[in-house]
Write a structure and sequence with these properties.
By secondary structure, the chain is α+β, with helices and mostly antiparallel strands. The chain folds into 2 domains: 240 residues, Creatine Kinase, Chain A, domain 2 (2-Layer Sandwich), CATH 3.30.590; 87 residues. Helices cover 49% and strands 16% of the residues. It has 14 helices and 10 strands. Strands 2-3-4-5-1-8-10-9 form an 8-stranded antiparallel beta sheet. A two-stranded antiparallel ribbon has the order 6-7. Helix 4 crosses helix 13 and helix 10 crosses helix 11. The mean pLDDT is 92.
């Protein structure tokens, strides 16, 4: 079980995780899109040397070269939020260093030479930035970053230039959906310069009432300002979601209980479960657990189900390729066993 989604954290009934991502490039080396396989391997060696020079990092991190693993294993890393789909697409040139507790991954040769990612449970943006800053400082002792005194850290995409930081939270907002408020919240976030995406980032749909909220610009803003802004907005969203939950419990309790119990019944009795339907059912039951309408099930149980029921993870469990129907059938079977 991944530590970042298994652990407790502040406001984790709504905020599943906080993510800090830093983009860095090496001075004098072209961006990854301009590198051949030999040049990309050189970048991996430079970062590996920087990690190996520090005894603590050398013990904590392990290296995975994506061309040396199967596409299925790469997909599992995506489902576990250890790498991005873009890194997997560049499998001939890319690699990832993953810390033992799975809270930190350092992607190599994605859009930038280095994409460091910190994942912590609940709302822990400052804590994530503290950890990212310490690791970044260690790497910078050996690696000469591409940096401009006026522009800041130089990146392949101009929107990341400056601090090179992207900050995001993964939030579960079912009550705002049920009370028809989510679209207004999304509109307000967009007007404030924040991006709202599915749980696997850019280009993914919002399913199971799970959203990823992040900053869009880094140039001209300090790291502390970016974190403070997103944390403040997240606090407002938490308050609105809590208010919506209270309203549902006060005004529509029977309907809410019926919705939650029907979804729980499907999870414990279904023989076929497509992944999108699963996420919707899990959302209802998660809300029921948070509101004490469902007992005997924990948030940890639901997190484990959510991760283990993804397509690639199911095929790893089965140790073979599965058709859509075989995956849907195995998913339902595993969930019945887990909830019993």
């Amino acid at each position: 079980m991944l530590d970042w989604i298994n652990g407790d954290g502040p406001d984790n009934h709504i905020v599943l995780s906080s993510r800090i991502r830093l983009a860095r490039n090496i001075q004098g080396i072209p961006f990854p899109d301009r590198l051949n396989e030999k040049g990309s391997a050189k970048v991996v060696d430079i970062i590996k040397e920087a990690i190996d020079r520090n005894p603590v990092l050398a013990r904590e991190f392990s290296l995975t070269v994506l061309k040396d693993i199967s596409p299925l294993d790469s997909r599992v890393l995506i489902e576990n939020h250890m790498i991005s789909p873009a890194l997997a697409e560049r499998h001939k040139h890319s690699a990832v260093f993953i810390r033992k507790d799975y809270r930190v991954s350092i992607m190599v040769n994605e859009e930038d030479h280095i994409r460091m990612q910190i994942l912590l449970p609940g709302l822990q943006l400052e804590e994530g930035w503290d950890l990212a800053g310490k690791i970044d400082d260690v790497l910078e002792e050996t690696i000469n970053y591409a940096f401009d005194e006026r522009m800041g850290y130089l990146t392949a995409c101009p929107t990341n230039t400056g601090t090179g930081m992207r900050v995001s939270v993964m939030a579960h907002l079912p009550a705002l959906v049920l009370t028809n408020q989510l679209s207004r919240v999304f509109q307000a976030l967009t007007q404030l310069g924040l991006a709202v995406r599915g749980i696997y980032g850019e280009g993914t749909d919002v399913v199971g009432n799970m959203v990823q909220i992040s900053n869009q610009l880094t140039l001209g803003k300090s790291e502390e300002h970016i974190i403070e802004s997103l944390k403040g907005m997240t606090r407002e969203i938490i308050n609105k979601e809590n208010q919506a939950r209270d309203a549902l419990m006060s005004n529509n309790r029977v309907e809410l209980e019926d919705k939650v119990c029907r979804s729980y019944g499907l999870l414990t009795g279904a023989r076929i479960l497509p992944s999108k339907e699963l996420m919707e059912l899990l959302s209802d039951v998660r809300l029921g657990v948070d509101l004490n309408l469902v007992t005997g099930v924990t948030t940890k149980d639901l997190n484990e189900i959510m991760l283990q029921s993804q397509p690639a993870s199911l095929q790893k469990i089965a140790r073979k390729q599965l058709s859509d129907m075989e995956r849907d059938t195995l998913r339902a079977e595993l969930i019945r066993k887990k909830l019993k």
